[in-house]
Amino acid sequence: MKLWPINSLRKGILTTKFPMGKNETISPWSTLPVRRNDSEPYCPVNAINMGKVSLEKCISCGRCMESMEPSLRLDNFEKFREKPLLKRSFKIFPIDSGTCGACNTELFSIGNPYYDATRLGIFFVNTPKQADALAIMGVYGEEMESVIKKAVEVMAQPAVIILFGACALSGGIIGRGLRDLVDPDLIIGGCPPDPFVILNALEKVRGR
Ligand code: SF4
Ligand code: SF4
Prior knowledge:
By secondary structure, the protein is of the alpha/beta class. It is built from 5 helices and 10 strands. One iron/sulfur cluster (SF4) binds next to helix 2, strand 8 and helix 4.
C-alpha cells in the first residue's frame, strides 16, 4: 500500500516560495559578510578591503566572525550585461573545470523538489548546443581549456556565460581562476554559492 498521497497531504507543499517570502534555509556564511563592529577583520584570503568584501575572493569560511557577520542578502553576484532572451525557459549546461564537488551539488540542488527551479522555467540540459547559459565552476585546468572554449563556441546566441563559485572567480584557495579564459555575463560568489543566491542571480540575468 503506497502511503505517499497521505504523507503528501499531511506535510503539505514543502517547496520554497522563492522569490516570495523568507528564505529560511539560506546558509548564512555563503552570503557576503558585512561589518558588525570596528575591530580589524582577519581574512585568510585577503578578501576584505576597507571593510568591503570581494565576492570574487571570499571563500565563505567565517574566519572574520569577530568583526563581520553574514549579510543574509541574496546579492552575492554581479551581472555585466543584459542579454535579450528570446524564450520563457532558461536552459543551463554546467561545466566542471576542477571543483571539490560542492559547487556542483549546490547548483544541481536548485532542481530538487525544495527549490524546484523548473517552476521558474529553469532547466539543465546535456549539451551546450541546447543551452541558453553555460555555468562554469572550479579552477583553471589546462586540459579543460579547450573544452570550455569549444562549449562557448557552439552555443546559440544570445548565450549567457556564468562563472560560478570562488574557485572559478579567483582560484579560491586551490588554484587559478577562469576570468582570463572567458568573458562572463554573470558571476556568482560563494564557496559554494547558496541555492537561493543562485536562483536570484539567474532570475536577475534573465531580466526578471
Ligand atoms: S568569510 Fe572568510 S573569506 Fe570571506 S571575508 Fe570572511 S574571512 Fe574572508
Ligand atoms: S568554490 Fe568552494 S565549493 Fe566551489 S569548487 Fe571551489 S572550493 Fe569547492
